[in-house]
Give the backbone structure.
Amino acid sequence: MISVVIPTYNGAVFLRKVLADLRAQTLQPDEILVVDNGSTDESVSVAEAAGARVLRERTNVGFCRAVNRGMEEAAGDWLVILNNDVMLRPDWLEELVNGATKSGARFATGKILSAQDRERVDGSFDALCLGGCAWRCGSGRLDSAIWDQPRTIQFAPFTAVLLAKSLVQQIGKLDDSFGSYLEDLDFGLRCAIQDERGVYVPTAVAYHHGSATFGRWHRETVLNQSRNQVMLVAKHYPAGWVRGIGWKVLIAQLLWGLVAMRHGAGGSWLRGKYQGIKEFRSRRQTGTQKVLDVLEVSEGEIRSLQQASGFDRYWRAYFWLT
C-alpha cells in the first residue's frame, strides 16, 4: 500500500497540478493526504475536489510538523513525501518503487528537473560536506549523462521522496526543531549512522518550481537554512570536532554567508547563525566518529561530481581553502 503526503501552504495553483499528476500515474497510490498549514487560498477545496484526505492545521506549523502528521496518519507500507510545487511524469511512482524494491533500499529519490527550464537539473540526491553545508547535487546544471546513473545514496531530498514506513519507525520522524530546511539531511544522517542507504533512480523524473512558498533567497528561507546548518553540527558532530575540523566548519559557513550577502540576504544569514548558536548548548548531543566518516564520503562525492560537471564558485573556494 502506498500513501502520499503533501504539506501545503497557500499553494492551490501548484497543488491542483500535482494532484492531477498523481491521478495519472501508471502505479496509483492508495491514498493521498494533504496537510494544510492554515492556508487562506483554495488549497483545501482543491484537495478535497481531487479526492485527497485533508488534515488541517490552524496555523503554518512548518514543513516538519506537517510531514510528521501526515506520516502518522498514513496507512501505507510505502510513504511518498511531495512538495506541493512538484510535477510528475506518469511513470514516476512506478519507476521509484521498482528501483527501491529491486535494490532492497528503504528510501529512494529520482531526477528532479527545473519546471522553468526542463533541460536543467533542479536536484538529484543531496550531499553534505564536513563543513556542515550541503549541495543538492546537479542543481542548476544542464541535464546530462552524469545524472542518468543509478547509484546508492546517503541523503535524499524530501522534495519528492519514497520511504518505507518501517524505516521511519526505525529512524524516527523528522526533527520538528528544524522547522523547514535541512530536516531531510538530519534524517539522512540518522539513516547513514545506522547503515541505511537509499537509491537514486534517474528514470523517475519530476519537475520542481522551487521555493514556491517564500522564494530561494527570501529572508525566512536564508534564516532557517543558516540556523539549521548550526543545528546539524550541534546535533551530530562528536566531541572534539572543533580541534579536528572546526576550521572547515568556519570556512564553509563564512563562504555560505558571502553567497547570502551577494543575494541581499546577509542580515538573515547573521540572524540565523545567532539563533543557531544560542540554541547550540541546549541542543548539544555527542555524535560518534562514524558521523565524520559518513561526511568524509559525502564530501568526496561533492568533489568528484563538481569536477565532472564544473565547479561552482562556492565549492571551488571551499575545496581550495580546505
